[in-house]
């Protein structure tokens, strides 16, 4: 863990949400070296928070590293899990990125594409706050669940 101050307070109410708990599970699942073994939820989710000061430290043009790509995957994996919990059907995320950090994030349920998000400047992937990250996830989740409810036959294939 870095020695800089955390942007997420340990008592932030957003840490208690189902989405934040799922994000923590996803990040721990991707942690093959045990880096997060003794870390709190706030420490694990803090790299997702890009304040204006943190964004200034990242170059405008750059290639994403494996750590940033893992964060993108964790975010869309968490949304897929939330979709599964709500609709009871398996949701599968697919992330396709170029080496320059451009691409797409798709989540499918059956033969139905329920999330289709264009990704740009992935090396700067993050959110202003934990509540903004949750808000974005909630928007994607709401749209996905609406698409599933409108097309249950295709979602069941």
Description:
The structure is a single chain. The protein has one domain (13-155): Protein of unknown function DUF269 (Putative cytoplasmic protein). The chain has 6 helices and 3 strands, in the order ααααβββαα. β1 (91-97) and β2 (103-109) form a beta hairpin. The longest helix is centred in the middle third of the chain and has 22 residues, at 66-87. The radius of gyration is 16 Å and the shape is globular. The protein is α+β, with helices and mostly antiparallel strands. A 3-stranded antiparallel β-sheet has the order 1-2-3. The protein has helices at 18-30, 41-45, 52-57, 66-87, 130-150, 152-155; strands at 91-97, 103-109, 112-119. The model has no long low-confidence stretch (mean pLDDT 90). The termini are far apart. α4 (66-87) packs across α5.
Proportion of residues in extended strands: 5-15%
Which bin fits the share of residues in helices? 40-55%
CATH topology term: Putative cytoplasmic protein
Structural class, by secondary structure, is alpha+beta
What distinguishing features does this structure have?
157 residues, Putative cytoplasmic protein, single chain, 3-stranded antiparallel sheet, alpha+beta, 14% strand, globular
Summarize this structure briefly.
It is built from six helices and three strands; from the N terminus they run ααααβββαα. The chain has 157 residues and is an alpha+beta fold.
Task: Detail the topology: elements first, then pairings.
Layout lengths: L17 H13 L10 H5 L6 H6 L8 H22 L3 E7 L5 E7 L2 E8 L10 H21 L1 H4 L2
Antiparallel strand pairs: 1-2, 2-3
Helix pairs in contact: 1-4, 4-5
